[in-house]
Specification:
Layout: H1 2-5, H2 8-14, H3 18-21, E1 28-31, E2 43-47, H4 51-55, H5 59-66, E3 70-73, E4 76-79, E5 85-90, H6 137-148, E6 153-158, H7 186-204, E7 210-212, H8 235-251, E8 258-264, H9 267-276, H10 279-284, E9 287-291, H11 300-310, E10 313-319, H12 327-340, E11 344-347, E12 351-352, E13 359-362, E14 367-371, H13 373-382, E15 390-392, E16 399-404, E17 409-416, E18 421-426, E19 432-433, E20 442-446, E21 454-456, E22 465-470, E23 474-480, E24 483-484
Parallel strand pairs: 1-18, 2-5, 2-11, 5-6, 6-7, 7-8, 8-9, 9-10, 10-11, 12-13
Antiparallel strand pairs: 3-4, 13-14, 15-16, 16-17, 17-23, 18-22, 19-24, 20-21, 20-23
Helix pairs in contact: 5-6, 7-8, 9-11, 11-12
Bound molecules: 2-acetamido-2-deoxy-beta-D-glucopyranose (4 copies).
Domain Endo-beta-1,6-galactanase-like: 30-269
Pfam families: Glyco_hydr_30_2
Keywords: Hydrolase, Signal
Length: 485
């Protein structure tokens, strides 16, 4: 029934004109502000550890995640997500023994033991036998496949210093969750990452846009019995690593590779860590990376204010949740657009357990399974809000908008978590708000029904507005053409 009601011509034919002027109480209008500018969108991404260690040679997965093609998978066809950012993980593990000493990592799952390149402390020279450049072929391969498909931003990140840099030689963490890096290795951690960045530039055809030395460094859950690589750092040690990393990148000629920091677990911890740094350390940080695990909580706005004051951007560099429907993903992502104003957003594990993965997979058994509904929810955003677009204010927590100056199109993504209602989009503040009667293509995904990224041609401009009916638990994307700011 909604199909015809969106067409103003049909509305008039049917005599249902009241809907135009008298929306029900629950309906609302989002007015898009063309004067606003919440940053130039850098893109969408994913971390390659751990899934690419297992599935890094599957080009169909590269097609699904890094192109916007229609890709066959599991008997169906998927809309490629078109991600353009890959986060490559510098591993902390190696199986060699150094003078009778070996890594202690009994509890880290095999799929999460990422092979590291600097395998002993004897030499920092990357051409020496202390470095093994052949390890981790699968993760590197997925990065190459991504690049071949158009990915153009890469970040190098670390979950833990190499095992031999750790006090207990265990890259899962210290026994008590405290700091694990040995003081004589603080600079070595920076040397390790800068050396990989230089090697990647010279040998892999990859210039990392940024290097991140930490992963949730203030958290205390990085203990020796954890099942993944992790490392707690004190604020003072973080500051030393940041300073050393800036200097090691510079000395290798990588002056335009940013030091990103600090990938804290929440917006609030991210802000607190940032505020703990002195101005010299802050100036060495080229971008704030933060994780989105605070869900709907936390002061995204305060972290944004801090980044703005420092003149740097924010990436939501890691998001994941266990909600297979994509409801939480849409809710938190829309809050990010409205309050955090990141210029990029990267999912954690593209292939993971039920709920967490976009595609369900068993990394230990190297088996892929079905696609989650959240895959299609994410597609509603990633396929339309594209690199280079200007993010606009919408004045509404459930609406995001982006303007494509080259194509003169306006993209709007909106979700409805409440009872079914009309949402009206008001473009009257634009100098050219499309054309009266113009078709507005509409894609729709229901969080918990079978509708998956379905294209509808039933929505039209009515003067300087258009509207669409949103069932409860729906996300819809619109592309409005012939728009000038
Ligand atoms: C994946 O591809 C890389 C590079 O082509 C190769 O070195 C590696 O052995 C392959 N891995 C598997 C499991 O086939
Ligand atoms: C291993 O031990 C020998 C003898 O003590 C020492 O000369 C050498 O430097 C050590 N190697 C490393 C990599 O620590
Ligand atoms: C800022 O912190 C860095 C890293 O700890 C330190 O080297 C530097 O001396 C500090 N600068 C000031 C002005 O306190
Ligand atoms: C749809 O999913 C949401 C979020 O998981 C849940 O709260 C709601 O109960 C679901 N509704 C139906 C009809 O399954």
């Amino acid at each position: 029934m909604t199909l015809s009601l969106h067409n103003p011509v049909l509305l008039i034919l049917l005599g249902i004109t009241t809907l135009l002027g008298n929306p029900a109480a629950a309906d609302f209008t989002a007015t898009i502000n063309p004067a606003s500018n919440r940053g130039s969108w850098e893109g969408w991404g994913v971390s390659l550890a751990w899934w690419a260690k297992i599935f890094g040679n599957q080009s169909n997965l590269a097609d699904i995640f890094f192109t916007t093609n229609s890709v066959s998978f599991n008997g169906g066809t998927l809309p490629g997500l078109g991600l353009n950012i890959a986060r490559y993980n510098a591993g902390a593990c190696s199986s060699n023994s150094v003078n009778g000493t070996t890594m202690a990592a009994n509890s880290i799952l095999p799929s999460r033991q990422m092979p590291g390149y600097w395998i002993d402390w004897a030499s920092a020279d990357p051409t020496s036998s202390s470095w093994s450049w052949s390890v981790d072929a699968n993760q590197r391969n997925m990065m190459s496949l991504a690049k071949a498909r158009g990915a153009d931003r890469f970040e190098l990140f670390s979950n833990s210093p190499m095992w031999w840099m750790c006090s207990n030689h265990n890259p899962a963490g210290a026994a008590n969750g405290g700091e694990n890096i040995q003081s004589w290795n603080i600079v070595n951690h920076a040397v390790y990452l800068a050396t990989i960045a230089k090697y990647a530039h010279d040998n892999w055809g990859i210039t990392f846009a940024s290097v991140e030395a930490f992963n949730e460094p203030s958290s205390s859950w990085w203990t020796a019995t954890n099942n993944q690589e992790g490392s707690h750092f004190s604020i003072a040690t973080m500051a030393q690593v940041i300073t050393a990393l800036r200097s090691e990148l510079n000395s290798r000629g990588l002056t335009s590779t940013a030091v990103s920091a600090t990938d804290e677990n929440t917006y609030d911890i991210g802000l607190s860590t940032w505020n703990s740094f002195n101005s010299t350390t802050q100036k060495n940080v080229g971008r704030i990376n933060v994780h989105g695990y605070e869900g709907t909580g936390g002061r995204r706005d305060l972290l944004y204010s801090a980044a703005s004051a420092a003149g740097i951007e924010i990436w939501n560099s890691e998001y994941g949740d266990g909600d297979a429907t994509g409801t939480q993903l849409a809710q938190n992502l829309l809050l990010d657009f409205n309050w955090l104003h990141p210029t990029a957003w990267t999912y954690w594990q593209a292939v993971d357990t039920t709920g967490w993965g976009l595609i369900i997979g068993d990394l230990e058994a190297a088996q892929l399974s079905t696609v989650e509904q959240k895959f299609f929810v994410l597609a509603q955003f990633t396929r339309h809000i594209r690199e280079g677009m200007r993010i606009l204010d919408t004045g509404n927590n459930n609406v995001a908008a982006a303007y494509n100056a080259a194509g003169r199109t306006l993209v709007i993504v909106a979700a409805n978590f409440d009872a079914g209602q009309y949402i009206t989009f008001d473009l009257s503040e634009f100098s050219q708000p499309s054309t009266n009667g113009a078709l507005v293509p509409r894609w729709s995904t229901h969080f918990n029904s079978s509708e998956q990224y379905a294209l509808h041609s039933d929505t039209f401009m009515s003067g300087t507005k258009f509207w669409s009916y949103f069932d409860q638990n729906t996300v819809q994307t619109f592309e409005v053409s012939n728009v000038s700011l």
